[in-house]
Amino acid sequence: MRRLEPALLLAATVLAAQTKYMESKLIIVDPGHFHATLLQKDMYPWVDPRVTVYAPLGPDLLDYLNRIRLFNTRSDDPTKWALDIHTSGDPMAEMLRGHAGNIVVFTGRNRGKIDRILAALKAGLNVLADKPWIIASADLPKLEEALALARQKNLAAYDIMTERYEVTSELQRELVNDREVFGTLEKGSAREPAVRARSIHHVMKVVAGTPLRRPPWFFDIDEYGEGLADVGTHVVDLVQWTAFPGEALDNRKDIEVLAGRRWPLKMTKEQFTRVTGDAEFPPALVPRVHGGVLDYYCNNSVGYTLRGIHVELEILWNWEAVEGGDVYEASFRGTKSRVEIRQGKAERFVPEVYVTGASAGVVAAMDKRVAALQSRWPGLTAVQSGTDIRIVIPERFRVGHEAHFGQVTNRFFEYVTAPNSLPAWETPYMLAKYAVSTKGVEIGRNQ
């Protein structure tokens, strides 16, 4: 056999890789949440631009189609998605019959989502599914089955943890794991936990330049889940990702959920109509309507221990932001300092990272650490004010929440190409995360 010249060999290798990448084709099933569209805000060179969509004909599908149209027609770097749309009363069944791609995306309705994930994996499809995969602890065995099945069938199964890609979260993780800056994580107590975090979301908001329409079922906690079971999964994930990076957690031994609480956001019918477009509350919500006001149980707090470390989280929903947007704040208390993300008025509602309680030794360690981080974040600086040190982050690294969906998707495609490259700790992380989020909600309901 004639030996290929190096240049020809390289060209053949590149062509083979591109062919493999282009074999990736997306299937979107019942895109009831705007996160489905944010995955398509940009194009990916390894994904076929033709996407197959299975959904019932209704407002959820129309909202999805409108957002994709806006991406395809924007003046700045428009996307080129072509949609092959199949309307059906049973989109899952039609999707499984059609098998129109190799990656299926699930967003939206959360009750029964794990069953859809299992069915897709059994059919040999890779799964990229929005959080949460489960909203009840009784479904933890199904989650475990799904993750084991993905490994067995050499498939990628991944949930969309966008907040790991926020620069402030990445910096907090770096500093918490620097012994000279932070020391070691204290254990704290139920009264004074070593880790506190708070997340605030808003019902009314603008996404990708368009006012957000939420479907009526979004407010049905039996269908969609309470705040901790839904967006709270991000916060639980960030705590363990920061405190124990790269370490496999055992949700049966390393976690004890101690307390949970829930309370409603009061929504008037006028507010409900404004955000959904529906004039009346649907029958599923009527039992929670009192005097024309919906008790939307989306607010939760949870206290638990993670390998003996006391953690307290608060997950909140407000109607609409008065200033700024969604908020994430977190504090990790170490033996040498605290590392905090703050996002208040003093920060102009922009998340900032602080090292507080800094001694002379910590200040010197911070100078060394910031110098070491220049290779990843050039221009990063630290400014001291009293015992606080604020990390000054160059604006080019603040890419925004919507851009994180593309970052997660790129990472997922690496796992599709090489499923064995998924870190071993990711599976136990998912089990640990959903153990906290579901159990915390259940304790709150029982109280």
Keywords:
single chain, 447 residues, alpha/beta, Rossmann fold, Dihydrodipicolinate Reductase, domain 2, 2 domains, 10-stranded mixed beta sheet, 6-stranded parallel beta sheet, 18 strands, 35% helix, globular
| Total number of distinct structural domains | 2
**The CATH topology of the largest domain:** Dihydrodipicolinate Reductase, domain 2
The percentage of residues in β strands lies in 15-25%
Indicate the CATH class of the largest domain: Alpha Beta
Structural write-up:
With 447 residues, this protein is of the alpha/beta class. Helix 5 links the parallel strand 4 and strand 5. 35% of the residues lie in helices and 25% in strands. The chain is globular, with a radius of gyration of 23 Å. The chain has two domains: 148 residues, Rossmann fold (3-Layer(aba) Sandwich), CATH 3.40.50.720; 284 residues, Dihydrodipicolinate Reductase, domain 2 (2-Layer Sandwich), CATH 3.30.360.10.
Short description:
By secondary structure, the chain is of the alpha/beta class.
